[in-house]
Structure formats: C-alpha cells, structure tokens
Amino acid sequence: MSLSSFAIAAGDFSNADLILASASPRRAELLQQIGVQYAVAAENIDESHCASESAYDYVQRLALEKAQAGYRRHNSGLPVLGADTICLFNGGIFGKPVDCDEAISMLRSLSANTHQVLSAVAIVNEFRAELAISKSLVTFRTISSDECLKYWHTGESKDKAGAYAIQGYGATFVAHLEGSYSGVMGLPLFETQQLLGKFNVPIWQS
Prior knowledge:
Number of strands: 8
CATH architecture: Alpha-Beta Complex
Number of domains: 1
Largest sheet: 8 strands, mixed
Shape: globular
C-alpha cells in the first residue's frame, strides 16, 4: 500500500475526505495507516510561545490555528486537520531544534530521564472545531555526547520536537514508553479517529 494511494495531489481535493494542514511525512503516513483519503495542504503559522500560556494551551492552540488557517485558505468545504507536538522536561518546552548545539543540548537533557510528549490534533469545518490531546511519558537510556552528535548527522533531529524521532534511529534511545506511540510520532491515532468520526470522515478505506 503506497502513500500515493491515499494522498491526493496538492490542490486537488476532488477525491479527498480530509485536508491535512501539515507537511509532516509522519502525520501523512499515520493517516495512511488508518486508510483516510486526504489531501496535503501545509500551513506555516507563527509558532511563538506566549509567556502566560501553559504547555497544554500552547500545543492545542497551534494545532487549532493550523487547521483554521488551512480551512480559510482553501475553503473547499472539506474538514481540515491540524496537529502539533511538543516535549516537556523540567518545566521547559522542547520544540524543534534550531541547530546542532540545541539538538545535542536537548538530547543530553533527556538522557537517563523521563519526559512528557504532548500531541494535539484539531479538526475544523465551516460549522465547528474539535480538539483532542494525547499525553505520553518517554524514558530515555543514558546517551553519550558522541551519540548525540552522531544522531544529529543522521538528519533525524532537524524537524522533530525534542530532537528525536521515535520511529527512526531515535527508537534506540527509548527505554520505556507509557502512552501513545503514534502520539509521540506526531499524530495520536486513537484521538484522531474519534475526531474523524465526529466529522463523518471514513477510515479503513482500501
């Protein structure tokens, strides 16, 4: 089953049941996994964190703003899905690292510790917006500085919250996971399928 079996060409919504407002290949693969016919229409928004905003409010706001931006831009009548994922450790929010030094700093902080992963998903249409959030706990084994640098050079850290990909080489860092594997990847499928049902978006299509 290829990704192209489900992803509709950009700008062509005629055979889609949903618009994915994200360029993330992980989120696309997860929608494919549950058989959703979707079209990709990535949205770039300001992802700045407001000082008074809790981590829960922050990740949900970003997911909702992505979905709303996608709906306003395309106005196709289709529901639009937005999502966002962050890591939390010691009261700090770990988003996508801006460079090698920040990625290594994040990984060294997470080494031999347990952190939280919050993954929010939002779906909007003309009439309403629905939100859901997944919380997972991820425990890392000890990671050396040399491993962190080597991992950076794989390229996986560059667009990942917390500077790692649980579905890639980063899986070797994970000693224990409590929660949603797909949520740590970037789209919690349990919560997503519940929201899809509210918008009558079919799943399990072949």
